[in-house]
Design goal:
Blueprint: H1 4-18, H2 23-28, E1 34-43, E2 49-60, E3 66-73, H3 78-94, E4 101-107, H4 115-129, E5 138-142, H5 148-162, H6 186-198, E6 209-213, H7 217-228, E7 232-237, E8 242-244, H8 251-261, E9 271-273, H9 275-279, E10 283-288, E11 305-309, H10 318-326, E12 331-332, H11 334-337, H12 339-354, H13 360-385, H14 389-405
Parallel strand pairs: 3-4, 3-5, 6-7, 6-10, 10-11, 11-12
Antiparallel strand pairs: 1-2, 2-4, 7-8, 8-9
Helix pairs in contact: 1-3, 3-14, 4-5, 6-7, 6-12, 6-13, 13-14
The structure holds glutamic acid.
Length: about 400
């Protein structure tokens, strides 16, 4: 797989070519403030001891405490975590929240652990990192395969070790553990708000044919919200399967089917297709909502979507990005499109520090104008400089970060 950190740095170089930020600033942004690797010993249910490798990368805190999720995946490694932490730095600036960028992870397939092992592993991650975490220092959150329940274990462990009772060190918690209303669907909803704000400007019709890759928290919520707003979701996929129904999928039924059978495969009335075929379907909007590097030099020429909404982090490689730009296929970039998640995380952190609870209605009423504002500012920036939206977002973010660092 292409190294995601190299991809992230290629994007930074590109931005530095468009606007002169000065060598010193760009050089500083080529390295995280610190990257930490830990080994986490876990007593397994059979009595044996297993050591897992974990990470926390604190990339940049010019705008506020380091902020970003923790990923559990067998392919997670330090370069991926560094890339994700860099993108969080850009994302928080784009979303206009007072947070810096960080990311964490553990190399593990959580599906192979019992619930008890998963809890011991998650608490172990906190035990090794409690010194550097805290509401004003570094505030982790969920990412791929990390759930509100895991955030609750981590919050509890952090409180046990440090005595901190604010519960503001981790976001994405269950509501009863200090979590925020609306955090679950926030990334998908924020993505919809951004898309809805830019749809006409990027030349898409009122009723779009949509294809969604990935059916985790982000992909499934985005698909549902798009369908609820009169778009037609024709295809979705998860890690094992993909399904297509030209006249539109009933997403409540798709969710139920996945819950009952463990997979999307053989959904009544739909055709089973491969993940590759899904990406190459003709549609108005393609929504990659899974992992990095899914649109690359190898398949970019086969993409038939009219526009792309990146809800995953880093799904398009820099080379493929250039080709899409030349082909006039607009890409609403990850750092804007999926920033609804961290924005509601910021709301959660704020509620915890002030000991308040905001309703889902209040949360969404705050989220909508922030997403619209970020989307329009980036659209203007890109138009003004005749560059693509990702570079519009980068320039806007880098200007903000540079100003604070000086
Ligand atoms: N993991 C999410 C992201 O990539 C959310 C981060 C957060 O809420 O801090 O944006």
């Amino acid at each position: 797989m292409q190294n995601p950190f190299q991809n992230a740095m290629a994007q930074l170089s590109k931005a530095a070519q468009i606007k002169n930020f000065g060598d010193e600033f760009i050089t500083r942004l080529r390295q995280p403030d610190r990257d930490i690797r830990i080994s986490i010993p876990v007593k397994m249910d059979d009595g044996s001891l297993k050591i897992f490798e974990g990470y926390r990368v604190e990339y940049n805190n010019a705008l506020g405490p380091y902020k970003g999720g923790i990923r559990y995946h067998p392919d997670t490694e330090i370069n991926e975590v560094k890339a994700l932490a860099f993108w969080m730095t850009i994302k928080c600036a784009v979303a206009n929240i007072p947070m810096g960028g960080g990311k964490g992870g553990i190399t593990v397939d959580p599906k192979k652990l019992s619930k008890e092992e998963l809890e011991r592993l998650s608490r172990g991650w906190v035990q090794k990192l409690s010194d550097i975490l805290g509401p004003r220092k570094d505030v982790p959150a969920p990412d791929v395969n990390t759930t509100p329940e895991i955030m609750a274990w981590m919050t509890d462990e952090f409180e046990k070790i440090t005595g901190d009772k604010t519960r503001a060190t981790f976001t994405g918690k269950p509501i009863e553990n200090g979590g925020s209303a609306g955090r679950g669907p926030a990334t998908g909803l924020g993505g919809f708000y951004v898309f809805d704000s830019l749809r006409a400007q990027i030349g898409l019709p009122e009723k779009c044919k949509v294809v969604v890759q990935g059916f985790g928290n982000v992909g499934s919520n985005a698909a549902r919200i798009l369908a609820e707003n009169s778009h037609i979701v024709i295809a979705v996929s998860d890690s094992k399967s993909a399904i297509l129904k030209e006249d539109g999928l009933d997403l409540a039924k798709v969710e139920a089917h996945k819950k009952n059978t463990g997979s999307l495969r053989n959904f009544p009335g739909a055709k089973n297709i491969t993940n590759e075929e899904l990406l190459e379907l003709p549609c108005d909007l393609l929504v990659p909502a899974a992992f990095e590097n899914v649109i690359t030099n190898a398949n970019v020429s086969k993409i038939k979507a009219k526009a792309i909404l990146e809800l995953a982090n880093g799904p398009i490689t820099p080379e493929a990005d250039e080709i899409l730009f030349r082909k006039n296929i607009p890409v609403i970039p990850d750092v804007l499109a999926n920033s609804g998640g961290v924005t509601v995380s910021y709301f959660e952190w704020k509620q915890n520090l002030k000991n308040e609870h905001w309703t889902e209605k209040e949360i969404n009423a705050k989220l909508l104008p922030m997403m619209q504002d970020a989307a329009q500012k980036i659209f203007e920036k890109a138009k003004e400089n005749k560059i693509y939206l990702r570079m519009g977002a980068f320039i806007l973010a880098l200007e903000k970060i540079k100003e604070k660092m000086l």
